[in-house]
Write a structure and sequence with these properties.
- With 219 residues, the protein is of the alpha/beta class.
- It contains nine helices and eight strands.
- It has helices at 2-12, 28-36, 47-56, 75-78, 91-104, 127-135, 158-178, 196-200, 211-214, and strands at 18-22, 41-44, 63-66, 82-88, 108-114, 143-150, 187-189, 206-209.
- Strand 1 (18-22), helix 2 (28-36) and strand 2 (41-44) form a beta-alpha-beta unit.
- Bound molecules: pyridoxal-5'-phosphate.
- Pyridoxal-5'-phosphate binds at residues 22, 24, 45, 67-68, 151, 192-194, 208-212.
- Residues 22, 24, 45, 67-68, 151, 192-194, 208-212 line the site of pyridoxal-5'-phosphate.
């Protein structure tokens, strides 16, 4: 099934949009199956599981994305191996990543995660916080600002989802105009299993799809 799912999604995905297969809670063998269908980009949201899978699959040429909450005491489990940390959601985490990058001679590619859904609990920056950070971007010498990530409201109401995506998409375009010197600020990571086709209408450059590839997660 995994291979068929990936092939079906790729058929509908414009070639310039990057598919991150979200493999959290699924075993390394599931990733090998996806790999056999040509998938190379995978996303995980828990540092321990991320590190374990990186180790178990180091014989494959994979591109790892971190998409979950990252505590500053877990950076070393994630940062050496992550192609892109999509879920930077606090100033404190940003500062800690900068310190780690400086200490380790690395430039870490990140997306700023924005709060766009209706849920109170959903983490992420507000627009004014993102602006405040990007006006100071050049101070973060060991961070590469690659764009924005967001999760739409968890709802069946397509209008609400469209409103969430429209807002982050407009803000992304505004930031690209405002900060032309940030030449890597090109990625808009929106869209999951339930709403990725809608996200394409709003300029998604990355979609993060778990359930529609691997099936339901056993928590
Ligand atoms: C789990 C997760 C996804 C994938 O969700 P599905 O609905 O299973 O596709 C995407 N993005 C983030 C940040 C996630 O935590």
């Amino acid at each position: 099934m995994i291979q068929e799912n990936i092939i079906a999604i790729n058929k509908e995905l414009p070639p310039e949009v990057k598919l991150v297969a979200v493999s959290k809670f699924h075993p390394a063998e599931a990733i090998r199956e996806a790999y056999a269908a040509g998938q190379r980009r995978f996303g995980e949201n828990r540092p321990q599981e991320f590190a374990a899978k990186v180790e178990a699959l180091k014989d494959l040429d994979l591109e790892w994305h971190f998409i979950g909450h990252l505590q500053t005491n877990k950076l070393k489990m994630v940062l050496p191996y992550a192609h892109l940390v999509q879920s930077v959601d606090t100033q404190h985490l940003l500062d800690a990543i900068q310190d780690w990058g400086k200490a380790n001679g690395r430039v870490v590619s990140i997306l700023l995660e924005m709060h766009i859904g209706a849920e109170e609990t959903k983490q992420g920056f507000k627009e004014e916080e993102v602006l405040d950070i990007l006006f100071r971007a050049e101070k973060f010498k060991n961070i590469r600002f690659c764009g924005l990530m967001g999760m739409a409201s968890h709802t069946d109401c397509e209008e609400d989802i469209r409103a969430d995506f429209a807002r982050i998409s407009d803000f992304f375009a505004y930031l690209r105009d405002l900060f032309p010197e940030l030449s890597d600020f090109k990625e808009l990571s929106i869209g999951m299993s339930g709403d990725w086709k809608i996200a394409l209408d709003y300029g998604a450059t990355i979609v993060r799809i778990g359930t529609a590839i691997f099936g339901d997660r056993q928590y």
